[in-house]
Amino acid sequence: MKYDWKDAGEEWSEPWGTSEAQWFGAILPRVRDCLPAGTILEIAPGFGRWTHYLRDYCQELWVVDRATDCIDACRRRFAADSHVKCYLNDGLSLSMIADGSVDFVFSFDSFVHTDRKVVEAYLCELGTKLKIGGKGFIHHSNLGHYANSLRERLPRAVIKPLIKAKIFDRKHRRNPSMSADLFRALCAQQGLHCVSQELINWRGRRLIDCFSLLTRSDPAKEKPTRITRNPNFMREAALIRAKSRSRRNGDT
Ligand SMILES: C[S@@+](CC[C@H](N)C(=O)[O-])C[C@H]1O[C@@H](n2cnc3c(N)ncnc32)[C@H](O)[C@@H]1O
């Protein structure tokens, strides 16, 4: 079924209160060291939930999505921002982007759903499109880490009531073919190095998502990836939500 985009993706920021609270409370602190950047590439922007903020941190912002309705919406929403260019692609390639031209690549809440083939294709592109020393922040699935767990092997009919009873978490359509380990290995194959990976929970207990911070540089010359486990990501969201709500209400 086609997504109706009636709230432009804002609805996905509900655990943080608003996308503004999510950007300033949860995302910006994680990408602050990469900004500002001359040119930013955002992959899979949807209706521009993060484009809206990224545009203030660069001279050029290129956004690429495979969905016509998303690219049309971004073109409308950012029509007044001449430095924002929106491109429709085939879901795999970045042929419209010049080699060695990107300072910072960003993607949030999109690669969590795509399978290994898609992630691999984009990493292959980023191995040439990023400037040497260019950086990236990619939010992707780590569900693959749990591929052999009992939870993933049980039939759907058994799982459903256990989810209802809150014994098991939902998967939130995370892709089972990707994990933090695999992402790191695929980066290395493309001359990209994962500087850090933060494994996070997403609306549940398991660390089914990962934020990978990468750079285009020789992995052999880099320090080992700093890997952190953060089971409190949703607790963090709840705090951000409470804080932004009390700020909106004018509480001291
Ligand atoms: C859940 S939405 C998230 C959009 C946006 N990142 C946000 O957080 O609001 C997923 C987006 O990924 C895009 N997408 C999915 N697969 C893609 C691919 N292979 N290449 C480019 N865009 C893709 C969809 O068209 C959609 O815009």
Write up this protein.
There is one protein chain. The protein is of the alpha/beta class and 252 residues long. It has one domain: Rossmann fold, CATH 3.40.50.150. It is 32% helix and 25% strand. The protein has 8 helices and 8 strands; from the N terminus they run αβαβαββαβαααβββα. It has helices at 19-31, 51-54, 68-77, 116-129, 150-153, 156-164, 180-189, 233-248; strands at 37-43, 58-65, 84-88, 102-111, 130-141, 192-200, 209-216, 226-230. Strands 3-2-1-4-5-7-6-8 form an 8-stranded mixed β-sheet, with helices on both faces. β2, α3 (68-77) and β3 form a beta-alpha-beta unit. α4 (116-129) packs parallel to α7. The longest helix has 16 residues, at 233-248. S-adenosylmethionine binds at residues 9, 43-46, 49-50, 65-67, 70, 91, 108-110, 114, 118.
Overview in brief:
The chain has 252 residues and is an alpha/beta fold. 32% of the residues lie in helices and 25% in strands.
User: What is the CA-based Rg, rounded?
Assistant: 18 Å
**Uncertain residue ranges:** none
CA distance, first residue to last residue: 45 Å
Helix amount, in percent?
25-40%
Quaternary:
single chain
Q: Major β-sheet, in short?
A: 8 strands, mixed
Write the layout of secondary structure elements.
Blueprint: H1 19-31, E1 37-43, H2 51-54, E2 58-65, H3 68-77, E3 84-88, E4 102-111, H4 116-129, E5 130-141, H5 150-153, H6 156-164, H7 180-189, E6 192-200, E7 209-216, E8 226-230, H8 233-248
Parallel strand pairs: 1-2, 1-4, 2-3, 4-5, 6-8
Antiparallel strand pairs: 5-7, 6-7
Helix pairs in contact: 1-8, 4-7
The protein binds S-adenosylmethionine.
Residues 9, 43-46, 49-50, 65-67, 70, 91, 108-110, 114, 118 line the site of S-adenosylmethionine.
